[in-house]
Design brief:
The complex is a heterodimer of chains A (190) and B (444). With 190 residues, chain A is mainly α. Chain A is built from 7 helices and 2 strands; from the N terminus they run ββααααααα. The longest helix of chain A has 13 residues. Chain A is globular. Chain B has 18 helices and 9 strands. Chain B is α/β, with parallel strands linked by helices and 444 residues long. Helix content of chain B is 43%, strand content 12%. In chain B, strand 2, helix 6 and strand 3 form a beta-alpha-beta unit. Chain B has a 5-stranded mixed beta sheet, with helices on one face. A 4-stranded parallel beta sheet of chain B has the order 3-2-1-4, sandwiched between helices. In chain B, helix 5 crosses helix 8. The chains are: A mainly alpha (190), B alpha/beta (444). At the A-B interface, helix 3, helix 5 and helix 7 of A face helix 6, strand 3, strand 9 and helix 12 of B.
Chain lengths: 190, 444
């Protein structure tokens, strides 16, 4: 279980969200001390937080789900299906539109294994990152049938592989493989 | 696709949940009706009415199949008596144990039984909205249920006036994914509300304050399929199957040496008969035990295989029905290694809401790691026992109360194997190699 530090706006007005294991905090703190010194600091680590050029897709998604915070998971899944991950700018827009606190949205998004804040990386997936993640957010509503097509891209869910250091929890596949190994009697690898 | 294991030859195990499971097209409504689907719903609407339906289910003695075995009729009564503008019924088809396919198999092979049971539950408690919650990766179940709901709606079996004049019943299939805990009912409701999935303190139970604050009945899909049978065939007939205090059949996902798959077994069946469905062990292998209940299950030795498979009987011997998983373990498996990987899974999946759950399970895993890697402390067994009891006693949800079972049952039945690890730095199964290295090639 990770520790969460909600982050905020830095001296240059850029928004950062921090999460991760407690051990990495010292490093982060040093980095922000460097930032406060006024020198320019390379910002690659946060490049993916850059505002997506176009938030109109988020607005479409919000309209489709009535800007209702009760539909938050569907909104987040559809947003991830569109951008491949959950960009901070999109989360802020969702927070504004639905009236749900940013922290609540972050709390929800960080809980579910299939939602992520960073684009999937090559080494995490063992394959080039797809342009947009295809999480099928199929709310198959029998009665309100017509509009669920926007999210109906289908492909296997790309949850981070167990080796991904950012994976919040190991995948079910890792557990099943461990179980197989334990029952087969061979030594465990991790 | 998961295999369905047939009942042993000569046994008289009834087929209730999987009676229609071999249908060619499970979503063909006419074929299903020809084989008895919706007889129960019609009887409930036309003959029994809400109170009569609850009485019939009470007479059947049906208990929830989601693991806890709570009497279904009691739950319905609690939700029905409350004065509320709206009520929900939710079918829990999440199937949280990744190694168990029982619920998924039922939903994919006979979706109408779940639709019918859920409609009956809605009638009984006066709900006008019904949700079937399924795991997103169970695509076959999602497709089957979606088609079944649409077909039942087209036939007027659910929808406006279906449960009597002026009534309404809207049913929909919702997919959820992303955490083991989603199977727990209050977590499932949180997910359906679009929130972070952490259990709620009870009381108030969901029957009082559930989905969006309305009285909500959450029921496992097997429970609902049983309800459909009970209304069609009578509660008395159901009560005659299996033991008096918890009658009926349930689905078990068996992983045996020769055969694995889903089987429908009457409650009260000796665990041994279930294990035998999996076939003989390979030559030269010996039976070490059986893991019953999934990731938070208990590891039972061969001596207790005559225990009756049931809610209270399994708890007495240190396991539980749980996810309905039964895994046969042979002599290649190290109990410490197994218990440690199960506990680690439970710790990883703990939601983090209560500290004994979040940190206690983590520490328990670490003690197991020490034991398995040859760095145990002399006090570790005592510490493990203590900690396990503390975790169990302070649990907010059943996850935490049960996640200590792998170690507790391991200590209860396989104490000598643990002692070998701790006192003699050896692993009898030869799995935990680091011990030999750490202790200088073992100290036999
Ligand atoms: C960790 C945990 C996981 C659970 N997983 C499931 C599940 O996958 N399916 C299920 O029906 N119930 C599951 N349950 C039980 C539910 O909380 C709930 O008791 C059940 O759905 C109620 O239905 P029933 O009365 O028909 O059993 C789980 C409980 C816990 C504590
Ligand atoms: S240190 Fe953090 S995680 Fe631990 S108890 Fe305090 S607030 Fe909770
Ligand atoms: S898993 Fe969080 S309190 Fe039980």
């Amino acid at each position: 279980i990770e520790c969460i530090d909600m982050g905020g706006t830095d001296t240059k007005g850029r928004y950062h969200v921090h999460w991760g294991a407690a051990e990495t905090y010292g490093e982060r703190r040093e980095e922000s001390a460097l930032r406060r010194s006024g020198r320019t600091v390379p910002d690659e680590a946060y490049a993916h937080f850059a505002r997506p050029d176009d938030l109109s897709a988020v607005d479409e998604i919000l309209d489709e789900y009535d800007r209702d915070p009760g539909n938050m998971l569907r909104i987040l899944e559809a947003t991830q299906a569109r951008y491949g991950h959950l960009p901070v700018a999109a989360l802020k827009r969702i927070s504004h539109a639905t009236g749900a606190w940013y922290a609540m949205i972050y709390g929800t998004a960080s809980y579910y294994r299939h939602l992520r804040f960073e684009p999937p990386t090559e080494d995490a997936l063992g394959a080039p990152a797809p342009a947009a993640s295809p999480e099928p957010a199929t709310s198959t509503r029998a009665r309100r049938a017509p509009t669920r097509t926007s999210a109906a891209v289908s492909a296997p869910p790309a949850s981070p592989a167990p080796t991904d250091p950012r994976a919040r929890r190991p995948t079910e596949g890792a557990y099943l493989a461990d179980l197989d190994r334990a029952l087969g009697g061979s030594a465990r690898r991790r | 696709m998961t295999d369905i294991l047939p009942a042993p030859r000569g046994s008289r195990w009834p087929s209730i949940l999987l009676a229609r499971a071999r249908a060619k097209d499970p979503t063909d409504l006419d074929a299903a009706i020809a084989h008895g689907a919706f007889v129960g719903l019609r009887a409930a609407v036309a003959d029994f009415g809400p109170a009569g339906t609850i009485a019939e289910v009470a007479m059947s003695g049906l208990r929830g199949r989601g693991g806890a075995g709570f009497p279904t009729a009691d739950k319905w009564r609690a939700a029905a008596v409350l004065d509320a503008p709206r009520r929900y019924v939710v079918a829990n088809g999440y199937g949280s144990d990744p190694a168990v396919m029982s619920d998924r198999t039922l939903m994919a092979r006979d979706p109408f039984s779940v639709v019918e049971g859920l409609a009956i539950a809605a009638l009984a408690v006066g709900a006008s909205e019904a949700i079937i919650a399924v795991r997103a990766d169970a695509t076959e179940a999602v497709a089957g249920l979606t088609a079944a709901v649409a077909a039942a709606e087209d036939a007027g079996l659910i929808g406006p006036d279906s449960l009597g004049p002026g009534s309404d019943l809207a049913m929909r299939v919702e997919t959820v994914q992303g955490a083991y805990m989603l199977g727990e009912e209050t977590v499932l409701l949180k997910a359906l509300e679009g929130k972070r999935g952490q259990p709620e303190q009870r009381p108030p139970h969901p029957t009082e304050r559930g989905l969006f604050g309305a009285p909500t009945v959450v029921q496992n899909v097997q429970t609902l399929a049983s309800v459909a049978w009970i209304l069609a065939n009578g509660g008395r007939k159901y009560a005659a199957i299996g033991p008096l205090d918890s009658p009926g059949t349930t689905l078990v996902h068996l992983r045996g040496p020769k055969r694995s798959g889903v089987a429908e077994v009457p409650l009260g069946t000796p665990l041994r008969s279930i294990v035998e469905l999996g076939g003989e062990l390979a030559a030269g292998r010996t039976l070490k035990g059986v893991l019953v209940g999934g990731p938070s299950g208990g590891i039972l030795p061969p001596e207790v295989l005559d225990v009756a498979y049931g809610y209270s009987t399994l708890r007495e011997v240190g396991a539980h029905v749980g996810s309905g998983s039964v895994i046969v373990i042979d002599d290649r498996t190290c109990i410490v290694d197994l218990a440690r990987l199960l506990t680690r899974f439970c710790a990883d999946e703990a939601c983090g809401k209560t500290i004994p759950c979040r940190i206690g399970l983590r520490r328990l895993t670490e003690i197991g790691d020490r034991v398995a890697t040859g760095r145990p402390r002399p006090t570790d067994l005592a510490l493990m026992t203590d900690l396990a009891h503390d975790i169990t006693e302070s649990g907010l949800c059943d996850h935490e109360r049960l996640a200590t079972l792998p170690y507790l049952s391991g200590m209860r039945y396989f104490r000598s194997e643990l002692d070998d690890h701790i006192l003699r730095s050896s692993c009898p199964a030869g799995v935990c190699h680091p011990i030999a290295v750490a202790a200088g090639a073992g100290a036999h």
